[in-house]
Automatic annotation (TrEMBL):
Keywords: Hydrolase, Nucleotide-binding, Signal. Residues 330-479 form the 5'-Nucleotidase C-terminal domain. Belongs to the 5'-nucleotidase family. One of its GO terms (cellular component) is outer membrane-bounded periplasmic space. The keyword Signal applies. PANTHER family: 2',3'-CYCLIC-NUCLEOTIDE 2'-PHOSPHODIESTERASE_3'-NUCLEOTIDASE, 5'-NUCLEOTIDASE-RELATED. GO terms for molecular function: hydrolase activity, acting on ester bonds; metal ion binding; nucleotide binding. It comes from Pediococcus ethanolidurans. Residues 4-237 form the Calcineurin-like phosphoesterase domain. The keyword Hydrolase applies. This is 2',3'-cyclic-nucleotide 2'-phosphodiesterase / 3'-nucleotidase. GO terms for biological process: nucleotide catabolic process. Pfam families: 5_nucleotid_C (PF02872), Metallophos (PF00149).
Length: 517
């Protein structure tokens, strides 16, 4: 028998093949394409081929469409389970972003699915009923396959406390050590589906990031014996390989690829051959049976995105993202301005999250707002010292590198194992400068606040997004115990509210940051 394991991960609500930059945008990704391709593969499968499908998490958050269903039109929240039911998934896994809009949203999005949510390392003690089991056993043609579900244990480090009240998170490796042997005794093939990635280089085993427990994929394969296939996600990487003898995949983001693992079983139901690859959906035309499920919602989303919210006097369009990170930009100044207004502070940091952020047109629409600020971040105000601020700025300075020609590039630590634009911040309320010719942790050459040099023991209040405020992105100088107040309204709403109060916003080139190279 041939066993084909198809997986999706980190679709982030990109159902249609669009990035929503404009109404007629067409992209080579999206869940409608994925659903169509999976349907084609199932239909074309040989008589002795068994196709198993797994949705590996981060499905219901991340796009303008998910924001619309979370904040504007709750009646459309069933669309996610309608689509996954139509695909016919055998199992689903929770991603970390499944919790971003709170448990009621998660429950409503998952309420009508006809497949189980598996999570062996998560426990819900509140009776929410989202998790169905740690694993599921499937049987076909005399072959038994077990699917074990795991999710990154690091969720409490990012998520708002009220979104995970009563939930417990443990190491994926610890859970796998308990459950894989139990499954191994009952089945012929063990599949581990993990919404997490790899903390080490897949070829050498050398750490590729700080070993926090966020990603335990390599350790899973090193320490847990009896896994026949590993499905991963979370990092948005495109991986298809054999790692430590186990075929593993990670299919990127937004439905660009389907992860595919093929196992050939002999007459004793033992794996004889194995293959891992990614299936592109770029050329797939979405089938009408999937598209019709979402047509009404998609039209409402597009109409909502075109609603005008305010105007910009000057230019807030981003045409060169790298230049914006090197010298600042009026759009980033504006985001800091919104953060400071919402928290009554005069020191703020924000990031240009990715190179698809376009900034604002002269007439600002909801499309501009939700496409430029892509995360459902809330804000925290932290009391820090001058030393904390200097350490944070040195972390930012390490984002840059000079190549052999003296050109400024992104340093390796922010490029591998994936691009981390969201972990480099631009500050407002201070004047500062970096010298890229100096070694790491010595690049900050100027720093002043209200025109005076910042002292190491000086107390400062700074507004940050919640992810950064608890140390996300390896900013250990920011910690939860330094938070003095919070604003529990996500940034997209705060930006919209700001335009309601200030219908015309001036584009300001702050000029408070200098980069010496």
């Amino acid at each position: 028998m041939k066993l084909t394991i198809l997986s999706t991960s980190d679709v982030h609500g990109y159902l249609y093949p669009t990035n929503y930059s404009h109404r007629t945008d067409k992209e080579d990704y999206g869940f409608l394409k994925v659903a169509t391709k999976i349907d084609q593969i199932k239909t074309q499968a040989d008589a002795d081929e068994w196709v198993i499908t797994i949705e590996n998490g981060d499905f219901i958050q991340g796009s303008p469409l998910t924001y619309f269903t979370a904040k504007k039109q709750a009646k459309y929240r069933s669309i996610y389970s309608q689509l996954t039911n139509a695909v016919g998934y055998d199992a689903g896994i929770l991603g970390n972003h499944e919790f971003n809009y709170g448990l009621p949203y998660l429950q409503q999005c998952e309420a009508k699915r006809n497949y189980p949510i598996l999570a062996a390392n998560l426990k819900e003690n509140t009776g929410d009923g989202v998790i169905d089991a740690p694993y599921k056993i499937l049987t076909h043609g005399g072959v038994k396959v077990g699917i074990l579900g795991l999710t990154t244990q690091y969720i409490p480090h990012w998520e708002q406390k009220e979104h995970i009240v009563g939930w417990q998170f443990e190491s994926a490796v610890k859970a796998a050590k308990k459950w894989v042997p139990i499954l191994r005794k009952q089945v012929d093939v063990v599949i581990v589906a993990y919404h997490g990635g790899f903390e080490c280089d897949l070829a050498t085993g050398n750490p590729s990031e700080r070993l926090t427990g966020e990603n335990e994929g390599y350790q899973l394969l090193s320490e847990v014996h009896g896994i026949d296939a590993l499905v991963t996600g979370h990092q948005h990487r495109e991986i298809a390989t054999i790692c430590q003898g186990v075929p593993t995949t990670q299919p990127g983001e937004k439905g660009k690829y389907i992860g595919a693992i093929e196992l050939e079983l002999n007459e004793h139901q033992k794996v004889e051959k194995q293959l891992a690859h990614l299936i592109s959906v770029a050329d797939v035309v979405p089938a009408s049976k999937f598209e019709k499920l979402t047509t009404t919602l998609q039209t409402k989303v597009e109409n909502w995105l075109d609603e005008p919210m305010g105007k910009v006097a000057g230019n807030m369009k981003i045409t060169d993202p790298m230049k914006a990170r090197m010298y600042g930009h009026p759009y980033l100044t504006f985001i800091n301005q919104v953060q400071m207004a919402a928290t009554q502070t005069d020191l703020s940091a924000t990031a240009l999250f990715n190179d698809e952020v376009l900034g604002y047109d002269s007439t600002v629409t909801m499309r501009n707002i939700v496409n430029s600020y892509v995360y459902p971040n809330t804000l925290v105000v932290s009391e820090i010292t001058g030393t904390d601020l200097k350490q944070a700025l040195e972390r930012c300075a390490s984002f840059f590198a000079l190549n052999s020609n003296g050109k400024v590039t992104v340093s390796k630590k922010f490029r591998e194992p994936k691009m981390q634009y969201y972990n480099y911040d631009i500050y407002s309320g201070i004047n500062y400068a970096f010298d890229l010719n100096k070694p790491a942790n010595e690049r900050l050459i100027a720093l002043s606040y209200h025109g005076k040099p910042v002292q190491d023991d000086q107390k400062l209040e700074i507004v940050l997004n919640q992810y950064r405020g608890i140390g996300g992105g390896d900013y250990s100088m920011f910690q939860a115990n330094k938070i003095v107040r919070e604003v529990q309204i996500d940034m997209t709403e705060l930006i919209s509210d700001y335009f309601a109060k200030h219908p015309v916003v001036q584009a300001i080139d702050e000029g408070n940051f200098y980069l010496k190279k």
